[in-house]
Write a structure and sequence with these properties.
47% of the residues are buried. By secondary structure, the chain is an alpha/beta fold. The strands form two sheets. It has a five-stranded mixed sheet, sandwiched between helices. A five-stranded mixed sheet has the order 7-6-8-10-9. It folds into two domains: 118 residues, Fructose-1,6-Bisphosphatase, Chain A, domain 1 (2-Layer Sandwich), CATH 3.30.540.10; 107 residues, 3-Layer(aba) Sandwich (D-Maltodextrin-Binding Protein, domain 2). 40% of the residues lie in helices and 26% in strands. This is 3'(2'),5'-bisphosphate nucleotidase CysQ.
Length: 242
């Protein structure tokens, strides 16, 4: 099994586990979210270590021993991106599985289990924009800079849960961009960015700098994923908003 086949199989199966757990109705609220995080993480970590024992690993739900820093190939996973949305019974949550090679997100799979959708970096494509243009932002922490940027462009912000769900919504043609400011971690964006770049979207820091993964600190301050025809307009508006 090659890397993208492995990433896709892992994301898909973890998503099925999460759906089964939620459908069981044995847990709810915070307890359901915590169980989802732990269940998906246990499976993904064990499977990656079994299938790719020589690669590094960074997961939101596991302690980082930093042994990954000496590796060229590092799997970066978010077992349940959008824990709040998952626990609330919503569909805008995802499973992220990425492989970064020398800091570049080279392979990615994002499962949206509640939408019966699995995205892969080797097959994803960019759909035509449909509906009114807008910029996707965090449901819980919409950044003020996004509000100001959209005001300059006279387009709305659109709140949504998981970073993976927002990035895939840009690919589906539901928005012109996904903008985040205020901090994330590598696992929030590695798999979505791998898919976005492979499908022809632009994905950078807000200032246009490239996104680099497997750094000593997993914190990433900001992110812009955009349709290429909108990138210049968005960056100009960002500069004015700043």
């Amino acid at each position: 099994m090659n890397d993208i086949e492995l990433a896709a199989a892992l994301a898909d199966f973890a998503g099925r586990l999460l759906l089964d757990l939620r459908r069981s109705n044995l847990l709810e609220g915070k307890a359901l979210g915590e169980a989802g995080d732990q269940t998906a993480n246990a499976f993904l970590v064990r499977a990656i270590r079994h299938q790719r024992p020589d690669d590094g690993l960074l997961s939101e739900e596991s302690a980082d021993d930093r042994s990954r820093l000496g590796k060229s190939r590092v799997w970066i996973i978010d077992p349940l991106d959008g824990t709040r949305e998952y626990a609330e019974g919503r569909d805008d949550w995802a499973v992220h599985v990425a492989l970064a090679i020398d800091g570049v997100p080279s392979v990615g799979a994002v499962a949206e289990p509640a939408r019966s959708t699995l995205w892969r970096s080797d097959t994803a494509s960019l759909a035509a924009l449909h509906g009114a243009p807008g910029v996707l932002v965090s449901r819980s922490r919409p950044p003020e800079v996004a509000t100001r940027t959209c005001r300059h462009l006279d387009i709305p912000t659109k709140p949504m849960g998981s970073a993976g769900a927002k990035t895939m919504a840009v690919l589906r043609g539901e928005a012109v961009a996904y903008l985040h400011d205020g901090g994330q971690h590598e696992w929030d964006s590695a798999a979505p960015v791998a898919i976005a770049l492979a499908a022809g979207l632009d994905a950078t820091r807000l200032d246009g700098q490239p996104l680099v993964y497997n750094r000593p600190e997993s914190y990433m301050p900001d992110l812009l994923v955009s349709r290429p025809e909108w990138t210049t307009r968005l960056r100009d508006a960002l500069a004015r908003a700043a």
